[in-house]
Recover the amino acids of this structure.
């Protein structure tokens, strides 16, 4: 067990956990932030995607011990009021079916748009193919990303 | 139970002040969807004075209309579409409606079962009646208050109006009075042409919660003092626990208890959906998920062959014993066994005319055999459930399609009366049929009872995928007899499977062919199965629709025209009895998809520089009709479905926005499963355990365009979640034939997974 001071969604949060604990479980179990989802635990589905200094990473593969001073952003902190362009576009296109994968999808999309404000179809495919949607909402996700890009 | 202040906290205070209605249709709640209601009220900063008009509807003095969704939500968007039906007849402004998931209470809220594409279909009439009854009660209240004849009181957008005296009141003003009026029996329902909410594309009411990551799923559930539990199941079907040593596990941080758990005692009468794969499991209980996951790895377990075992199945016709065969099964051996059984005599399911003679006299016989593997549901949210069981009561919460089906079994397992069992329905991260089987709920309940604490049982992805309850393994041999003029004179299908056959003997093309024979056979197995999005149909539509394509080709006919000719025959001069489908509606989706896809010549289409290989298929199930044309391209030497045209006839479409989403999702799901879906076994063990070796379709493999068209009619709604799924397989197979020149007989169609990621 060790104590970590983590910068999450702009606030310092202290946790006392085993150093191997993935950020996914730190967020969900220790900090009561369940917006970040568990889908596979092996970096295959993207449900657990968060931002580490603005870049999408799979939190199931991110041990708390390597985070250090890097800032973590989760779906709960993507915007204060749910009005990030990605969130707005997701509502506009009524993307979700079950919704379980969508926080991961949105975090990947937001990260893509940070570095590539006008992504092409193949840019989107490349950036998003690590995020599985079992309900098959891919088409709407793509449309939503394109809408968010022009916002 | 103490709970934290999440959206699930349990507070009853506001109930005391709500005016309760009495008598009549599904009325009056003794307890209500407490917690979420209170939180929403606080969010909205509203008074908590609700007047209850029927079990589904509550209205505040300042005109906030709360509508309860009776059925659990798993992405089919019932939380929006079911309340829309009530709002339509109630005549309220949809913007004023607050929707909440209802409590589990079958007496007041109906069957509350999500599955069989039945939610809208079974609730369509009762919910319209509930809305219309409440509106009628409000009109009565206005008539009494204003001393005017009730016939003269009209409604619009949540207002009560008496034109002659220019009186207007909001529903909320008269709701408490209306709540005391007896619920009328037959209020008049609107004509479909007057609908203003139903048939309007309407956004998901939970959209904002989804995009802001609010806790809404079972896996997000929390309660004070809650522990985490995981199971360890045998590594293979046909194995059971022999002995275990938990000493290393118990030394790990955060671990509270390790024990073995027997689910059903010998002779326990199982309900039809009480399927369990392993009756004895190891359980690890601890403080946090990561700690339990790690500690579980330290278990030292010995497993042994289970041998033949017995299940006692309950049922209306009394109980019966079913033998589950022992042994460690492998996919290759299963395929060989299926091929062997396919040649044995089978059970006759339907026979018209004299197929034997017709086949004997045929100028040409086409015979093809199709195979499909087990499929895992792979709901994005793995199985999990919260349980807090004490001697007095049980509180459970989590993702579940049919709370009413698990309650009787829970009651027996826990020895508690049903009214002491509270099941909260959380939003499900997918279901696809898997969550109609409640064994994980029972496990959670028994674990909580044993450790005397609130627990949340979590399956890892690996637990989930290797547990069973799969789509069965199927095969079918189709034969068609042509005469010298290439007329189709006889049709024969013989289907089998592990452990059930897929044949729906009374479906198309039955009824359209003079001489027809359908047969089925089944091989028992210890690999457990369950409903998987459009059970059986999801195989039939792949096999039969590929076969019909091949028959049409042999006859020199366009595949759509060929089907339309058969349907014409089925309509004008049907063969045999009990034909399940409506030939007109079936033909309707085929002509719609033909026209919308601009289908000219079978097999190819062009757009700009792009050349597409096309495939078509149609199917009837869950009382609805679906047809697709898929257009395939080759990129980097690989076939991809680039665009799809879909036609659906599911009667009145309550919410076109989510209906379209559902069809698009079914298309993507169908392509994914047709190309990659497979759960195989070696020595009883599932060979796939997570998404690195079980391929699900991904962004880059999904079509770029899916156009969805609904047949417009005023038929009461029929199924939607499942029907568009099965024919995708057939359409993909037929397009692949055009694309590669090879017919597809074995699923998955692409067996070279490495290439595509
Ligand atoms: S849970 Fe991290 S990628 Fe699936
Ligand atoms: S919306 Fe259900 S998994 Fe994506």
């Amino acid at each position: 067990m060790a104590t970590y001071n983590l910068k999450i969604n702009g606030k310092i949060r202290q946790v006392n956990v085993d150093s191997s604990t993935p950020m996914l479980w730190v967020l969900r179990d220790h900090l009561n932030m369940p917006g970040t989802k568990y889908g596979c635990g092996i970096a295959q589905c993207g449900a657990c995607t968060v931002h580490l200094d603005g870049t999408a990473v799979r939190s199931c593969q991110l041990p708390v011990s390597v985070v250090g001073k890097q800032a973590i952003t989760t779906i709960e902190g993507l915007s204060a009021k749910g009005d990030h362009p990605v969130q707005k576009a997701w509502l506009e296109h009524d993307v979700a079916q079950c919704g379980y994968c969508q926080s991961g999808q949105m975090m990947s999309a937001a990260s893509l748009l940070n570095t590539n404000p006008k992504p092409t179809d193949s840019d989107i495919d490349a950036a998003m193919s690590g995020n599985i949607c079992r309900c098959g909402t891919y088409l709407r996700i793509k449309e939503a990303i394109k809408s968010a890009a022009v916002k | 139970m103490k709970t934290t202040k999440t959206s699930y906290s349990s507070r009853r205070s506001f109930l005391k002040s709500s005016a309760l209605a009495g008598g009549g249709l599904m009325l009056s709640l003794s307890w209500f969807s407490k917690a979420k209601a209170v939180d929403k009220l606080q969010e909205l900063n509203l008074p908590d004075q609700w007047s209850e008009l029927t079990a589904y509807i509550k209205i505040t003095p300042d005109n906030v209309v709360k509508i309860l969704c009776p059925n659990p939500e798993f992405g089919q968007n019932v939380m929006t579409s079911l309340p829309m039906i009530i709002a339509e007849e109630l005549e309220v402004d949809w913007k004023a409606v607050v929707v909440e998931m209802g409590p589990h209470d079958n007496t007041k809220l109906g069957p509350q079962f999500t599955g069989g594409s039945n939610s809208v279909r079974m609730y369509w009439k009762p919910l319209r009646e509930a809305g219309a009854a409440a509106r009628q009660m409000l009109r009565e209240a206005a008539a009494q208050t204003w001393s005017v004849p009730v016939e003269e009181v009209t409604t619009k957008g949540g207002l009560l109006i008496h034109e002659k005296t220019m009186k207007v009141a909001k529903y909320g003003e008269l709701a408490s009075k209306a709540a005391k009026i007896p619920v009328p029996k037959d209020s008049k329902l609107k004509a479909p042409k007057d609908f203003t909410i139903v048939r309007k594309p309407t956004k998901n009411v939970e959209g904002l919660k989804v995009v802001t990551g609010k806790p809404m799923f079972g896996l997000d559930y929390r309660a004070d003092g809650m522990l985490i539990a995981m199971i360890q199941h045998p590594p293979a079907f046909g194995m059971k626990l022999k002995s275990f040593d938990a000493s290393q596990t118990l030394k790990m941080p955060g671990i509270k208890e390790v024990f073995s758990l027997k689910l059903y005692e010998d002779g326990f009468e199982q309900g039809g959906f009480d399927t369990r794969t392993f009756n004895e499991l190891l359980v690890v209980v601890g403080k946090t998920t990561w700690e339990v996951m790690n500690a579980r790895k330290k278990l030292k377990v010995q497993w042994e062959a289970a041998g033949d075992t017995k299940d006692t199945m309950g049922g209306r016709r009394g109980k019966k014993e079913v033998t589950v065969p022992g042994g460690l099964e492998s996919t290759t051996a299963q395929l060989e066994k299926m091929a062997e059984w396919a040649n044995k005599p089978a059970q006759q399911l339907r026979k018209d005319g004299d197929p034997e003679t017709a086949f004997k006299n045929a100028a040409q016989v086409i015979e093809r055999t199709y195979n499909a593997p087990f499929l895992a549901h792979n709901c994005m949210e793995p199985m999990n459930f919260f349980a807090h069981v004490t001697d007095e009561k049980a509180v459970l919460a989590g993702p579940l399609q049919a709370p009413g089906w698990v309650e009787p079994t829970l009651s027996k397992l826990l020895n508690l009366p049903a009214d002491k069992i509270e099941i909260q329905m959380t939003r499900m991260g997918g279901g696809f049929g898997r969550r109609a089987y409640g064994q994980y709920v029972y496990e959670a309940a028994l674990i909580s009872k044993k450790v005397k604490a609130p627990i949340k049982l979590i399956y890892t992805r690996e637990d989930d995928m290797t547990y069973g309850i799969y789509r069965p393994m199927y095969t079918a041999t189709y034969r068609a007899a042509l005469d010298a003029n290439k007329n189709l004179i006889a049709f024969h299908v013989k289907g089998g499977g592990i452990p059930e056959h897929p044949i729906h003997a009374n479906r198309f093309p039955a009824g359209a062919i003079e001489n027809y024979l359908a047969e089925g056979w089944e091989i028992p197995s210890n690999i457990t199965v369950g409903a998987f999005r459009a059970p059986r149909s999801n195989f039939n539509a792949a096999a039969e629709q590929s076969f019909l394509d091949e028959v049409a080709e042999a006859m020199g006919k366009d595949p759509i025209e060929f089907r339309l000719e058969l349907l014409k025959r089925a309509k004008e001069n049907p063969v045999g009895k009990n034909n399940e489908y409506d030939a007109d509606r079936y033909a309707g989706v085929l002509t719609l998809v033909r026209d919308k896809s601009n289908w000219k010549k079978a097999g190819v289409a062009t757009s700009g520089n792009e050349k597409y290989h096309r495939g078509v298929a149609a199917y009837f199930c869950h009382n609805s009709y679906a047809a697709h044309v898929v257009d395939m391209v080759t990129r980097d030497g690989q076939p991809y479905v680039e665009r799809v045209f879909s036609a659906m006839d599911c009667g009145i479409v309550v919410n076109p926005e989510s209906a379209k989403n559902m069809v698009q999702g079914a298309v993507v799901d169908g392509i994914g499963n047709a190309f990659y879906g497979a759960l195989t076994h070696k020595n009883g063990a599932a060979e796939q355990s997570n998404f690195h070796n079980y391929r699900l379709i991904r962004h880059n493999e999904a079509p770029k365009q899916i156009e969805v068209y609904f047949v417009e009619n005023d038929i009461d709604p029929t199924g939607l979640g499942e029907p568009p799924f099965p024919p995708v397989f057939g359409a993909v197979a037929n397009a692949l034939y055009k694309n590669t020149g090879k017919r597809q007989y074995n699923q998955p169609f692409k067996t070279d997974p490495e290439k595509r990621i």
